[in-house]
Design goal:
Layout (H helix, E strand, L loop, with lengths): L18 H18 L13 E6 L5 H12 L3 E6 L11 H10 L4 E6 L4 H8 L3 E7 L5 H15 L6 E5 L6 H12 L3 E5 L15 E3 L2 H5 L4 E4 L15 H8 L14 E3 L12 H4 L6 H21 L25 H7 L1
Parallel strand pairs: 1-2, 1-3, 3-4, 5-6, 5-8, 6-7, 8-9
The chain binds phosphoric acid mono(formamide)ester (CP).
């Protein structure tokens, strides 16, 4: 698979991207990771650009990550949440977004409980729209940071066995991860209690099981998901104790797992439910790495949407040597692009 330049106005879903576009976004993330390792973590790349985070649902990671990403690129970043915006006074999503755009906003990052809200806004607005999670539909930037984390550890997606465990039916992360992993050649298994598997789960293209041991056996990566009580999972939730006993990742349940099984979770974690604390904090957990790479991944996305002129070549990321060590970036090009 060959990376294809990302030329879209928006980032709305993983399902609509080609494998080449996904690989390109992962490659671009390499370039921005280096900025986050500097003593002064700031480049002038998006100076004069405005990014607005419009969140109609709670968030810690995604909102902070976009804010940090924008600020490290020198953009002006504004955070608006439903509880403090005029949405509370009855203003429509369209009117709120059009008013924000009227203030010469370049990128609108939106999280909304309604599936399709970012797609709707992308048709209404000229500025770029990034989907930061829409209902049970998609969470494309979470998938990109998940894919990046997996690639860092496993190098190749072809034939990789990835199991996604938990409340698949209500999970936008699962939908985006499944789409991205399948496009890149991984084998995906979804596992959870039958009522938490989507209707016609097989249509997602993944192997389906209700048995955790089956999902763990042979897996290279296990992604545990939170039970989305706020989206109605409570109606079918067996209770914390029963769920933990049947689907919780514990050292005991992982006894038969492959050596070097990667443990992931998009957060927030309910410790003792989806996984035990010793697994969450154990040697095979990369949960905080996911968060770390999320900043670089979102810097790459903001740069591609707001910072690059249409006729400008993309940032040239450093190549990875076989051992995974970064080679020096091709003379000056990465630095030049980041310093603009
Ligand atoms: N993974 C994720 O979307 O976390 P937040 O809800 O905290 O943004």
């Amino acid at each position: 698979m060959i990376p294809e330049p990302y030329r879209r106005k928006d980032l709305l879903s993983i399902r609509e991207l080609s494998a080449g576009e996904i690989l390109f976004l992962l490659d671009q993330t390499d370039s921005f990771r280096e900025v986050n390792e500097r003593d002064i973590k700031k480049v002038p790349t998006l100076r004069g650009k405005t990014v607005v985070n419009l969140f109609f649902e709670a968030s810690t990671r995604t909102r902070a990550s976009f804010e940090i990403a924008g600020k490290r690129l020198s953009a002006d970043v504004i955070n608006l949440s439903a509880s403090t915006s005029s949405a509370k006074k009855g203003e429509s999503l369209r009117d709120t977004a059009r008013n924000i755009e009227a203030m010469a906003t370049d990128v609108l990052v939106v999280r909304h409980s309604a599936s399709g809200a970012p797609h709707y806004l992308s048709r209404e607005l000229r500025c770029s729209v990034v989907n930061a999670g829409d209902g049970c539909h998609e969470h494309p930037t979470q998938a990109l940071l998940d894919l990046y984390t997996i690639r860092e550890h496993k190098k190749d997606f072809q034939g990789l066995n990835v199991s996604i465990i938990g409340d698949i039916a209500h999970s936008r992360v699962a939908r985006s991860d499944i789409a991205g992993l399948l496009k890149l050649g991984a084998n995906v298994t979804i596992c959870g209690p039958a009522p938490m598997l989507p209707a016609a789960a097989e249509c997602l293209g993944a192997r389906v099981t209700t048995r955790l041991d089956e999902a763990i056996e042979g897996a290279d990566v296990a992604i545990a998901l939170r039970i989305q009580l706020e989206r109605g999972a409570g109606a079918t939730f067996p209770g914390n104790r029963e769920y933990a006993a049947t689907y919780g990742l514990t050292r005991k349940r992982l006894k038969g797992a492959k050596r070097n099984l990667l443990i992931m979770h998009p957060g927030p974690i309910n410790r003792g439910v989806e996984m035990s604390p010793d697994v969450a904090d154990g040697p095979f957990s990369v949960i905080l790495e996911q968060v770390e790479y999320g900043v670089a991944s979102r810097m790459a996305i903001l740069y591609l949407l707001a910072g690059r002129k249409a006729d400008e070549p993309p940032v040239s990321p450093p190549r990875l040597e076989e051992g995974g060590q970064s080679e020096a970036a091709p003379a000056g090009r990465t630095e030049d692009a980041l310093a603009r």
